[in-house]
Amino acid sequence: MEFHLTEGGIRTKLEYGELAIAGNDDHGYRPFQLMIASIAGCSASVFRKVLAKKKINIDDLKIRTETVRDMHDANRILEIKLHFVVKGTRLNIETLEKSLEIAHRNCPMVRSVENSIQVKETLELINLVD
């Protein structure tokens, strides 16, 4: 990847377009937003693969995030909470929880930050009627 300085931050071109990164919302995505998006995106991707291997079909997956930051230490990210909301038919909460644990252990982004940022996942199941 190659980054270029802009008036308000930096930018790079990626496969899906240009990405502007800045400390100010007016000039691009903030670095902490990209960190959260990377961890949530990776976690969702690995979770989906685990479910597919177990032949578990879901209708929808949403992830809500919360971030705890240390305002006294450069606004460092201390904790990322990922709340997975899974919708589907005839889903078992225990099986989904085990699948989420497997995903946590196998997500490269989560593993990359595990000694500096605590990543906590919670799960909510919405069982749809046949």
UniProtKB/TrEMBL annotation:
Organism of provenance: Gracilibacillus halotolerans
Protein name in UniProt: Putative OsmC-like protein
InterPro entries: KH_dom-like_a/b, OsmC/Ohr_fam, OsmC/Ohrsf
Gene3D superfamilies reported in the protein's UniProt record: 3.30.300.20
Residue ranges of coiled coil: none
